[in-house]
Amino acid sequence: MKRKIRMFMHNKRLQYTVRVSEPNPVLASLLLEQFGGPDGELAAAMRYFTQGLAEEDPGRKDMLLDIATEELSHLEVIGSIVAMLNKGAKGQLAEAALSEADLYMSLTRGGDSHTQALLYGGGPALTNSSGVPWTAAYVDSRGEPTVDLRSNIAAESRAKIVYERLINITDDPGIKDALGFLMTREIAHQKSFEKALYAIEPNFPPGKLPGKPEFTDVYYDMSQGEGDATGPWNSGDNWQMVSDRGEQAAVDGGDGQASVKLPAKDTKVLDKLAERTQSHPVGDPITGADLGAGPGAGATTPVDK
Fold first, then answer.
1. Beta partners for residue 127, in sequence order
2. Has residue 18 been placed in a domain?
3. Number of separate domains in the chain
4. Rounded to two decimals, what is the model's pTM?
5. What is the DSSP secondary-structure string of 43-84?
């Protein structure tokens, strides 16, 4: 089987032009959410690269590697915005051009901006907006395309919402424009992943094994009281609603208890443990709380005066 030879080649031109009107270290700190956060561009790139490298389907493999590479270009765009927003603070801090008080105020206006300036020199750090370092735990791939594609759809949806919120907290037209582009690409990627998912037939339920038919279409109404509601998620021809409390337990027909078959030697040892640690419900022993408590120290029961 012939494999393509792949390599990374960097183009110094950004995928989307970055125009920042003025420095703003606090906004830079908030934008790091999409640089090194769980729904950020690095997490997306690593998620799709690892999926693509293991993918057996040539079409999905190509799509995943294309989108993963684009996510790296988005990482560069958001990182460039962060760097531009920190330009003023970087110079002032390095050259001590401001008075001590003014410099301190400029770095501590909010967010994690002081950490970005002091530790990273104004450059984008692989952290989220709270300064939490990026971690590979953000990559939640499972190696099953119907599972991973659904996770990718959700990840793109979350990223779009974060971009919307970031757009709402800035009035810088250049930043709004660039963030709008990044947000829009999340929509395009979600569309690609959904098309790829539905190109697999059947794609539900995920994986190979079917569910147990007696439980697949059952909805257990286990949170009961004011606010109970019905809808297509729990009623209609696709669902059997179970509201009776007695029918919600031991649904397998057993006694609803946990049991294990133990070797005789383990049973003997456990019996000794149970005997040694058994409680004595009869009687009311005096404890340290009883001996130490008093009218001035918080008696455990009311004291007649």
1. 133
2. no
3. 2
4. 0.82
5. HHHHHHHHHHHH--SHHHHHHHHHHHHHHHHHHHHHHHHHHH
